[in-house]
Write a structure and sequence with these properties.
InterPro entries: UCP028498. This is DUF2255 family protein. It is a single chain. With 126 residues, the chain is of the alpha+beta class. It has a single domain, classed as Electron Transport, Fmn-binding Protein, Chain A (Pnp Oxidase, Chain A, Roll). The chain has helices at 6-14, 55-63, 86-100, 105-112, 114-117; strands at 17-21, 33-36, 38-40, 43-46, 65-70, 73-81, 121-125. The protein has a seven-stranded antiparallel sheet, sandwiched between helices. Strand 5 (65-70) and strand 6 (73-81) form a beta hairpin. The longest helix is centred in the C-terminal third of the chain and has 15 residues, at 86-100.
Length: 126
């Protein structure tokens, strides 16, 4: 597996939103949707606002691969599930609150709720 370059980590991690897509259950491409992204060290993480029912997330669960586009970075990615590691999840919650707090508590609270935490995926370049 390759790693993100420092430039890619900065561009993706600093972006407010990225466009993400994962294949449908039948393998056909899904239209990209905007989602929030956070950075923890050299890792980039996303969560499904809709929890496990989010369309892109269902495709990610099934195929474990997809595509992102943001800040001049277009990349094929592997989705790696983040096991329930409270220290990592708590840190990601804090990053979500810090980075996106200006959007109001309703949006941020949804992203740090148990349903969204359960969908945390690390984005790895393919």
């Amino acid at each position: 597996m390759t790693s993100w370059t420092t430039d890619q980590l900065d561009r993706i991690g600093d972006a407010d939103e990225l466009q993400i897509s994962a294949p449908r259950s039948d393998g056909r491409p899904r239209r990209p949707v905007p989602i929030w992204v956070v950075r923890h060290g050299d890792g980039l993480y996303v969560r499904s606002y809709r929890g496990a029912s989010g369309g892109w997330y269902r495709g990610a669960q099934l195929h474990h691969e997809g595509r992102i586009s943001v800040g001049g970075v277009d990349a094929e990615v592997a989705f790696t599930e983040v096991l329930e590691d409270d220290a990592v999840q708590d840190h990601l919650d804090a990053v979500y609150r810090s980075k996106y707090g200006r959007y109001g508590p309703g949006y941020v609270d949804a992203m740090v709720a148990p349903q969204a935490r359960a969908t945390t995926l690390r984005l790895d370049p393919r």
